[in-house]
């Protein structure tokens, strides 16, 4: 895999070797005069690549080695930039694919002169590169002393060992986790060997927690013997087994000469055979280590326990595989505990902190995000500084800089570097790339993976789905606790991530060392060549003007940025990501058609309404994500032969010749009836989202369009279309029923319209439908619910009930929804919904939105049958506060807590208050009466398309004007 990757370890060397190999093939016959030089480059670079790969695993290289690595890596980028220019020249001067016969011959003749010129130019450039390579090699040979090596070993103590001997009085926030795990470890049930795995990212205090548990259990004399051993990334199994044996037998040096692993295991097993033991294995990195170690531990019935700490979720699960074991996930410190730890180490308590330092303290604690390692490091640093506001502000603003370095900061970086160097090379590039995103940024998984692909960080086998492979990379970083998951679905997939500030600091420093990413600092021009850069809107204008981005491969922008540096000279640019920079306009992307290397263009959420007419010149473009304000794609878009992912709004007009985009794999979202002729030609599509609207189409034309669409979709289904999403906008012409066959590729359907009766009869015929969403239906009957429940593989369902009038509510019966795992319901009244015993047997996540019902007397009036959902793991409730008293909202919250506790699966409960500022005060209720809001909601002034939250907002505003405003104000509110 490394042979074709752009890597933090080897620069562009991997992809460069692949390109040089391509230039030796028949496709580049025009380069025959320089083939010998290209072979020389390829052979030389293979040796250099091997050197870089070897050095990438040296954690502390000496200075000469650092200089050599940097020179070789930068040379690889420079060579690739030149090779890419050659390839663009060759591609642009070759005949167009549409040319045939005489026309092709004429084109070839017309291109003869520039073809000769191109050959000479390439030959000259290749010779220059060859000479530069020789110069680099000769330079290091002249000053060579020894083979490249690491720095001499220092007599450093593993900083994790400090946690073993830390005084318990120094610790904060550990009592709860410690007591919970001690209670679990002391349980007598079964008395068989059981294990607990503690998992979390570096610096959360796993070792400290394990040490305190050991001390607590030791004080109670509940175990006859025990041992505590720390594991390195490359463990010495003999030394570890000797340590365990020495600790359990309490004979320190008795086994120092024993080197036979099998004999050591036998002695450990013999000693533990009839004893109740407690073993702690600290910081395991891979399952193989545990596979070996567990052979030494006897599975007796004495109530023995084993505790493992690790940073990797899969390792934790592997070490604690049975349902009697436990995987305990470490959490950051709460805000209160963070403050307590921080101020305790500096002043003894928070009250002793001078007022002038509190603002800086608050900002510093925010950066630490509850990470004990970071809090300890920075508070220890501050404890040695003078207590002046200027000094604390200096530390606050320079936490990421070399000015803030100390032994404790170095310790923090050392612990984080263990996780970094444990990564395979391709994941190191992916994690360092996150240095380009701002602090606390919520990073979408798909957005990140697309950028990785365009940067060349992901390379699969022939025809392998790179998006799928990239998502595996993403989840591996989550698994290793290097990024924090956000938006975890019922299926365990993570939609978003964040990077802890402390880890981000490490990534910024490391990516700067590798010259992978450049993070601009205020009033400071970046050193060296800029390869990848992000603009946050806080950059100095003068520095922005002076930026040399001629070698930049990636430019990203965030927030309310209003200007970009000139893009025309960034000829090496692969990625231009402007997502959600709403201030950017059409002129900001002027000249992008000259960025011939561009692979990824994202203008979603910007004010850009037009793309340059010459967009078709971007022959390497793979991903194009447009804004919803873009009304039309230029005609030249159909020439983007390498385009693999195209995302447009459903109202965007696409050019003729859409079928020419033969490499397109993802297409979202197009009006099916307007582009039906071209769809069937896109036989490489794997994901497709279409919208169905019949407005403006009459008679035979509609019939013909339906027939063509059926034909096109059936063809794509046979050609390997994996996922088809359909947005149905129902109208009067659709009352005859759905016309599409039950295609296996239909995975998602969204229905917009008022009457769903006809479509509910079609849905159960779809064998692979997984996601179903309804928007604002006017009428849903019990029979509709039961028909939907028959969809064989439905996993997600979203159902709005807040605008529907019932004589009685809907009942979810036990016969339907056998596979459903996520159910989102928008509703506002008691009695809208009820679950029967045995309903939705696999449901994991239930989300209740916009609930405003009030109990008649007590919590029992809230019973929806939630206790019957046997697999429920997560219950989310959004309580609308509009029109409710504070006591009523509190009663509803208590009721949902009771329902969650009544469920035998004990689901996690998350409750939020929507519009908390709209809670009615008692005097308002007295003046207008408690039923006023509900009466207002039922009036006709509320927009028909409004979601429940908006309905209540309008009602609340009207209500407030009705009790205090003038007649004119009431009319304006209405």
TrEMBL record:
<dbReference type="InterPro" id="IPR044974">
    <property type="entry name" value="Disease_R_plants"/>
</dbReference>
<feature type="domain" description="NB-ARC">
    <location>
        <begin position="179"/>
        <end position="346"/>
    </location>
</feature>
<keyword id="KW-0677">Repeat</keyword>
<keyword id="KW-0611">Plant defense</keyword>
<dbReference type="Pfam" id="PF23559">
    <property type="entry name" value="WHD_DRP"/>
</dbReference>
<dbReference type="GO" id="GO:0043531">
    <property type="term" value="F:ADP binding"/>
</dbReference>
<dbReference type="InterPro" id="IPR041118">
    <property type="entry name" value="Rx_N"/>
</dbReference>
<dbReference type="InterPro" id="IPR036388">
    <property type="entry name" value="WH-like_DNA-bd_sf"/>
</dbReference>
<keyword id="KW-0175">Coiled coil</keyword>
<feature type="domain" description="Disease resistance N-terminal">
    <location>
        <begin position="12"/>
        <end position="97"/>
    </location>
</feature>
<dbReference type="GO" id="GO:0002758">
    <property type="term" value="P:innate immune response-activating signaling pathway"/>
</dbReference>
<dbReference type="Pfam" id="PF23598">
    <property type="entry name" value="LRR_14"/>
</dbReference>
<dbReference type="GO" id="GO:0009626">
    <property type="term" value="P:plant-type hypersensitive response"/>
</dbReference>
<protein>
    <recommendedName>
        <fullName>Disease resistance protein RPM1</fullName>
    </recommendedName>
</protein>
<keyword id="KW-0433">Leucine-rich repeat</keyword>
<dbReference type="InterPro" id="IPR002182">
    <property type="entry name" value="NB-ARC"/>
</dbReference>
<feature type="domain" description="Disease resistance R13L4/SHOC-2-like LRR">
    <location>
        <begin position="551"/>
        <end position="909"/>
    </location>
</feature>
<feature type="domain" description="Disease resistance protein winged helix">
    <location>
        <begin position="436"/>
        <end position="506"/>
    </location>
</feature>
<dbReference type="GO" id="GO:0042742">
    <property type="term" value="P:defense response to bacterium"/>
</dbReference>
<dbReference type="InterPro" id="IPR032675">
    <property type="entry name" value="LRR_dom_sf"/>
</dbReference>
<dbReference type="InterPro" id="IPR038005">
    <property type="entry name" value="RX-like_CC"/>
</dbReference>
<dbReference type="InterPro" id="IPR027417">
    <property type="entry name" value="P-loop_NTPase"/>
</dbReference>
<keyword id="KW-0547">Nucleotide-binding</keyword>
<dbReference type="InterPro" id="IPR042197">
    <property type="entry name" value="Apaf_helical"/>
</dbReference>
<dbReference type="Pfam" id="PF18052">
    <property type="entry name" value="Rx_N"/>
</dbReference>
<dbReference type="Pfam" id="PF00931">
    <property type="entry name" value="NB-ARC"/>
</dbReference>
<comment type="similarity">
    <text>Belongs to the disease resistance NB-LRR family.</text>
</comment>
<dbReference type="InterPro" id="IPR058922">
    <property type="entry name" value="WHD_DRP"/>
</dbReference>
<dbReference type="InterPro" id="IPR055414">
    <property type="entry name" value="LRR_R13L4/SHOC2-like"/>
</dbReference>
């Amino acid at each position: 895999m490394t042979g074709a990757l752009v890597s933090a370890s080897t620069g562009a060397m991997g992809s460069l070797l692949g390109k040089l190999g391509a230039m030796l093939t028949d496709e580049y016959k025009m380069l025959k005069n320089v083939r010998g030089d290209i072979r020389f480059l390829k052979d030389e670079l293979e040796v250099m690549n091997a050197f870089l790969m070897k050095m990438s695993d040296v954690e502390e290289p000496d200075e000469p080695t650092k200089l050599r690595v940097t020179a070789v890596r930068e040379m690889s980028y420079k060579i690739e930039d030149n090779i890419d220019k050659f390839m663009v020249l060759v591609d642009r001067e070759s005949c167009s694919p549409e040319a045939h016969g005489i026309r092709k011959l004429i084109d070839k003749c017309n291109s003869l002169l520039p073809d000769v010129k191109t050959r000479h130019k390439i030959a000259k450039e290749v010779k220059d590169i060859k000479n530069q390579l020789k110069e680099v090699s000769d330079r290091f040979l002249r000053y060579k002393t020894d083979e490249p090596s690491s720095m001499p070993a220092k007599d450093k103590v593993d900083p994790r060992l400090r946690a073993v001997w830390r005084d318990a009085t120094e610790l904060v926030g550990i009592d709860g986790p410690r007591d919970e795990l001690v209670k679990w470890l002391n349980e007598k049930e079964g008395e068989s060997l059981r294990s607990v795995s503690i998992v979390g990212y570096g610096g959360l205090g796993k070792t400290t927690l394990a040490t305190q548990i050991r001390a607590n259990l030791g004080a109670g004399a509940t175990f006859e013997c025990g041992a505590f051993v720390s594991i390195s990334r490359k463990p010495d199994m003999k030394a570890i087994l000797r340590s365990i044996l020495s600790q359990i037998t309490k004979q320190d040096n008795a086994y120092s000469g024993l080197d036979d692993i099998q004999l050591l295991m036998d002695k450990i097993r013999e000693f533990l055979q009839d004893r109740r033991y407690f073993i702690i294995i600290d910081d395991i990195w891979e399952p193989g280590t545990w596979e070996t170690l567990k052979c030494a531990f006897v599975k007796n019935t004495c109530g023995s326990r084993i505790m493992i700490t690790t940073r990797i979720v899969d390792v934790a699960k592997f070490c604690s595989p049975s349902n009697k074991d436990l995987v305990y996930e470490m959490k950051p410190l709460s805000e209160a505990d963070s403050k307590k730890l921080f101020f305790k180490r500096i002043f003894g308590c928070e009250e002793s902190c001078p007022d002038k330092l509190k603002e800086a303290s608050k900002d510093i604690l925010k950066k630490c995000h509850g990470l004990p390692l970071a809090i300890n490091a920075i508070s220890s640093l501050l404890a040695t500084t003078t207590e002046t506001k200027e000094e604390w502000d200096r530390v606050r603003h320079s936490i990421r800089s070399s000015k803030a370095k100390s032994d404790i900061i170095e310790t923090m970086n050392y612990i984080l570097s263990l996780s970094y160097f444990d990564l395979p090379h391709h994941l190191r590039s992916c994690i360092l790339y996150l240095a380009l995103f701002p602090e606390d940024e919520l990073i979408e998984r798909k957005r990140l993976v697309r950028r990785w692909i365009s940067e060349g960080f992901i390379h699969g086998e022939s025809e392998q789905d790179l998006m799928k492979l990239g998502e595996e990379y993403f989840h591996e970083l989550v698994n290793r606790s290097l990024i924090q998951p956000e938006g975890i679905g019922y299926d365990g997939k993570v939609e978003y991530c964040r990077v802890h500030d402390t880890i981000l600091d490490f990534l910024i420093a490391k990516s700067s060392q590798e010259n992978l990413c450049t993070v601009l600092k205020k009033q400071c021009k970046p050193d060296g060549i800029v390869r990848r850069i992000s603009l946050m809107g806080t950059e100095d204008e003068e520095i922005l003007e002076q930026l040399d981005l001629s070698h930049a491969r990636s430019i990203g922008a965030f927030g309310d940025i209003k200007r970009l540096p000139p893009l025309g000279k960034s000829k090496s640019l692969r990625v231009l990501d402007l997502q959600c920079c709403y201030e950017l306009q059409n002129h900001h992307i002027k000249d992008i058609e000259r960025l011939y290397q561009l692979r990824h263009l994202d203008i979603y959420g910007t004010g850009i309404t037009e793309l340059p007419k010459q967009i078709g010149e971007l022959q390497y473009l793979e991903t194009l994500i447009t804004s919803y304000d873009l009304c039309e794609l230029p005609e030249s878009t159909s020439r983007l032969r390498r385009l693999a992912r195209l995302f447009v709004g459903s109202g965007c007009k696409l050019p003729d010749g859409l079928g020419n985009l033969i490499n397109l794999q993802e297409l979202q979202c197009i009006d099916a009836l307007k582009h039906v002729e071209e769809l069937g030609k896109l036989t490489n599509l794997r994901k497709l989202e279409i919208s169905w609207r019949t407005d403006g189409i009459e008679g035979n034309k509609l019939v013909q369009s339906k027939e063509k669409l059926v034909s096109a979709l059936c063809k794509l289904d046979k050609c390997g279309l994996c996922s088809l999403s359909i947005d149905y906008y129902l109208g009067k012409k659709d009352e005859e029923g759905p016309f599409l066959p039950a295609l296996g590729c239909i995975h998602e359907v969204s229905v917009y319209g008022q009457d769903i009766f006809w479509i509910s009869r079609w849905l159960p015929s779809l064998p692979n439908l997984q996601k179903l969403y309804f928007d604002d239906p006017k009428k849903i009957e019990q029979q509709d619910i039961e028909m939907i429940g028959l969809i064989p593989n439905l996993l997600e369902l979203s159902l709005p009930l807040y605008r529907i009038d019932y004589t009685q509510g809907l009942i979810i019966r036990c016969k339907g929804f056998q596979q459903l795992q996520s159910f989102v319901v928008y509703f506002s009244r008691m009695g809208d919904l009820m679950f029967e015993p045995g309903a939705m047997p696999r449901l994991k996540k239930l989300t209740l939105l916009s609930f405003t019902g009030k109990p008649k007397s007590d919590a029992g009036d809230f019973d929806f049958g939630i206790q019957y959902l046997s697999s429920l793991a997560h219950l989310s409730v959004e309580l609308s506060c509009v029109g409710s008293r504070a006591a009523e909202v509190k009663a509803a919250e208590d009721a949902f807590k009771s329902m969650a506790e009544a469920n035998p699966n004990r689901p996690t409960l998350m409750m939020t208050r929507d519009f908390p500022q709209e809670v009615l005060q008692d005097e308002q209720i007295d003046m207008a009466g408690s039923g006023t809001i509900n009466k207002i909601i039922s009036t006709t002034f509320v927009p028909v398309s409004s979601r429940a939250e908006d309905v209540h907002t309008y009602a609340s505003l009207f209500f407030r004007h009705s009790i205090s405003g003038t007649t004119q104000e009431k009319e304006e509110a209405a």
